[in-house]
Amino acid sequence: MNAALTGLCEKGAKGAMFACELEEEDFWRISSLMYRCCRVNLHEGKKTLVQSRLNKRLRALGLEDFNAYWQYMLDNEEEVVAMVDCLTTNHTHFFRGPEHFDFLSKRIFPALRERKEDSIRIWSAGCSSGEEPYSLAMALVETIEDVDTKDALVLATDISRKALERAKRGVYGKNEVYKVPPELRIKYFDFIRDEESGEMLFKVKDVLARLVRPRFLNLVDQWPMKHPFDVILCRNVMIYFDRETQRELIKSFWRALKPGGILIVGHCESLAGMMSRFEFLCPTIYSKIT
Fold it and tell me: Could you tell me which of 219, 267, 195 has the C-alpha nearest to residue 37?
């Protein structure tokens, strides 16, 4: 966290605003708005983070303090979307949590390959900039070689429209694909060069892009999906919700899964004490009980 962003509003030599202090009243107004929008629980310990991230919006808009920013949001609904983008965490990388992909590749995807039903539905809930759903697509293609002949889909949803735009482009830097094994990097990415910087970039090939469908979704809103899922990954998302929202979300995941479907959560998350109708398979991995 940049210490320069924690002081009062300061002016530089050219009059540029460096940082504004987030007063308690402004913090709780923003925190309450975030909760109403997406049930994200910004407790007192997040105040410095909120101040740091939203100062970027104040500078971009030329606003002098957080009260002015609040008034601006009241008149500009699109700024609420920008605020949510700023305050949601989008840290991820390819094949994050390798034990989950190992479990899917060895136990779940082979079973999907052998069954008579052609429909395969996987959901990456909280997909960020796309690394997780594209990793799932790679694992799926590697396990089910004729997946292109099946009705297969990896739904990739997130509340951050900025992150989703990256997921739709499917273009990543060399430091972002380092977790992809070299043989898969060659097989599933095209090498392209950025016209402005000359940097070598990696663009997912059509075989993955055809499988992955990035879509905006606020998890606390009504879900539009019609077909049940074989697998749902919602990792390191529920930690931002309060306990009651977590319970509601788990019930919704149960309804969205096929009988015996798999739910995978993050390592800081658990269904313990949730009165859920899931069977514990191993840490962070659960199967729907009908």
Answer: 219
Give the C-alpha distances (Å, rounded to integers) separating 274 from 11, 70, 245, 247, 248. Answer: 50, 36, 11, 6, 10
- Decide: helix, strand or coil at residue 170: coil
- Domains, the chain, ranges and CATH? 3-87 (1.10.155.10), 98-170+205-288 (3.40.50.150)
DSSP 54-78: HHHHHHHHT-SSHHHHHHHHHH-HH
pLDDT above 70: percentage of residues in the chain = 93
Overall pTM > 0.85: no
| β-pairing verdict for 257-265 and 120-125 | unpaired
Catalytic residue list: 53, 158
Rg (CA), the chain: 21
Contact criterion met (CB below 8 Å) for 92 and 132: yes
Please, is 186 exposed, middle or buried when counting C-beta atoms within 10 Å of its C-beta (0-12, 13-18, 19+)? exposed
DSSP 237: -
For the segment 107-152, what is each residue's pLDDT rounded down to a tens digit? 999 999 998 788 999 999 999 999 999 999 999 999 998 998 999 9
| φ and ψ at residue 49, rounded to 5 degrees | -65, -45
At a CB cut-off of 8 Å and minimum separation 6, what does 220 contact? 38, 39, 245, 248, 249
Question: H helices within the chain, ranges in order?
Answer: 24-38, 47-61, 66-75, 77-87, 98-103, 109-114, 131-143, 161-169, 182-188, 206-209, 243-256
Q: Which two tokens stand for residue 43?
A: 């407790």
